[in-house]
């Protein structure tokens, strides 16, 4: 049995073929979460699977049967396989001819095993490209024309070129995506174990380790899934991915303020307002007491400087604004 650091290729194959049980899905997701190296290996393995998928579209492949038969023949005929170079050598399977679908299934599996071994064990698989931020935001255009706006302390990895049926990237942190439409090649985001699948739309993904993954849709349609849970979202809808469920929400336009610099509050309590300002401007803003936390505010800010935004909030709610070092404080006696 071929393994990748305590997980079998047979299990990875069943996972990618949507034939895995819930327990097996959980095993794969747990393995992926253990190490960035596992994510890298899985990305390579998944790309190989996608390339081989075009051959197997016209028939149903029994993954377990194919693995068993082809593994046995690979062991007996490994010396006859030469991966580099144009020559393709035939491997005899006996005098009895197989039906065409069986030959196709064997070809798919043979390619999968051979290229998986060659790339993952030879170290020649091309490194994914990586864009990362720390105390800044970055806009990046991917090879397919998709625009990505990365928030602070975030990173995205992607191939130099999108080949195969899917356009797959991996996100850590937060980013706004404006995906280039391509109905024949869905765009897939792997965000901390959550999969976001789209054809062409714009949406925000927040996937920091310390909080649940959240998706907010601006335009189009988005599918969010994790393990056996799945939800479809359209414009104005959002979702929060919990440990054992996916919770539907109303999209929060203010969560995208780090990109748009637009904040629109409607009878929002001050705690909600300050949280949005804190995340969008990347500053430390605090309330001096609980009495003012429930003050309500209806107001819109559009590309205003931080000091002006906080001053307007303070004046509107009759609060005092002061700054100590890098911390802004709002103080007052509460709202009537």
Number of helices: 8
Please give the alpha-carbon distance between the first and last residues: 71 Å
Shape estimate? elongated
Strand content: 25-35%
Count every beta strand, where a strand is a DSSP E run of 2 or more residues: 18
Largest sheet entry: 13 strands, mixed
Summarize model confidence as the mean pLDDT. 81
Provide a concise account of the structure shown.
The protein is of the alpha+beta class. The chain is built from eight helices and 18 strands. The chain folds into three domains: 114 residues, no CATH class; 126 residues, Jelly Rolls, CATH 2.60.120.1440; 71 residues, Phage tail protein beta-alpha-beta fold (3-Layer(bab) Sandwich), CATH 3.55.50.30.
Helix and strand topology:
Blueprint: H1 9-16, H2 22-34, H3 36-53, H4 63-77, H5 100-122, E1 129-132, E2 138-141, E3 147-150, E4 155-158, E5 167-178, E6 187-191, E7 194-198, E8 202-207, E9 213-219, E10 221-226, E11 229-234, E12 237-241, E13 246-250, H6 257-260, E14 262-269, H7 270-281, E15 284-287, E16 296-302, H8 306-316, E17 320-324, E18 327-331
Parallel strand pairs: 5-6, 15-18
Antiparallel strand pairs: 1-4, 2-3, 3-5, 4-5, 5-8, 6-7, 7-10, 8-9, 9-12, 10-11, 12-13, 14-16, 17-18
Helix pairs in contact: 2-3, 3-5, 4-5
Structure description:
- The protein is of the alpha+beta class and 336 residues long.
- It has three domains: 114 residues, no CATH class; 126 residues, Jelly Rolls, CATH 2.60.120.1440; 71 residues, Phage tail protein beta-alpha-beta fold (3-Layer(bab) Sandwich).
- Strands 1, 2, 3, 4, 5, 6, 7, 8, 9, 10, 11, 12 and 13 form a 13-stranded mixed beta sheet that branches. A three-stranded mixed beta sheet has the order 15-18-17.
- Strand 17 and strand 18 form a beta hairpin.
- The chain is elongated, with a radius of gyration of 25 Å.
- The protein starts with 8 loop residues before the first helix and ends in a 5-residue tail after the last strand.
- The relative contact order is 0.07.
């Amino acid at each position: 049995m071929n393994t990748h650091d305590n997980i079998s290729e047979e299990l990875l194959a069943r996972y990618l073929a949507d034939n895995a049980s819930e327990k097996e899905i959980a095993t794969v997701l747990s393995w992926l979460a253990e190490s960035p190296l596992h994510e890298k290996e899985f990305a390579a393995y998944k790309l190989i699977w996608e390339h081989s998928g075009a051959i197997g579209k016209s028939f149903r492949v029994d993954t377990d049967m194919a693995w068993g038969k082809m593994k046995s023949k690979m062991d007996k005929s490994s010396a006859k396989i030469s991966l580099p170079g144009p020559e393709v050598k035939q491997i005899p399977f006996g005098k009895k001819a197989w039906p065409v679908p069986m030959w196709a299934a064997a070809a798919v599996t043979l390619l999968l095993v051979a290229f998986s071994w060659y790339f993952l064990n030879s170290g020649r698989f091309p490194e994914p490209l990586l864009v990362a931020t720390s105390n800044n935001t970055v806009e990046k255009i991917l090879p397919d024309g998709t625009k990505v706006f990365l928030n602070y302390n975030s990173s995205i990895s992607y191939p130099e070129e999108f080949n195969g049926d899917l356009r797959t990237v991996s996100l850590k942190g937060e980013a706004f995506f404006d995906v280039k439409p391509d109905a024949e090649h869905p765009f897939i985001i792997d965000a901390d174990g959550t999969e976001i699948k789209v054809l062409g739309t714009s949406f925000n993904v927040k996937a920091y380790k310390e909080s649940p993954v959240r998706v907010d849709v601006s335009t189009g349609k988005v599918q969010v899934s994790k393990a056996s849970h799945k939800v479809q979202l359209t414009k104005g809808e959002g979702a929060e991915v919990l440990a054992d469920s996916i919770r539907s929400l109303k999209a929060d336009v203010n969560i995208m303020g780090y990109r748009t610099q637009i904040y629109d509050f409607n009878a929002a309590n001050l705690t909600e307002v300050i949280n949005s300002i804190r995340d969008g401007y990347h500053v430390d803003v605090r309330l001096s007491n609980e009495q003012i936390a429930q003050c309500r505010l209806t107001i819109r800010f559009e590309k205003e400087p931080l000091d002006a935004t906080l001053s307007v909030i303070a004046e509107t709610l009759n609060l005092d604004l002061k700054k100590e070092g890098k911390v802004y404080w709002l103080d007052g006696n509460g709202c009537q």
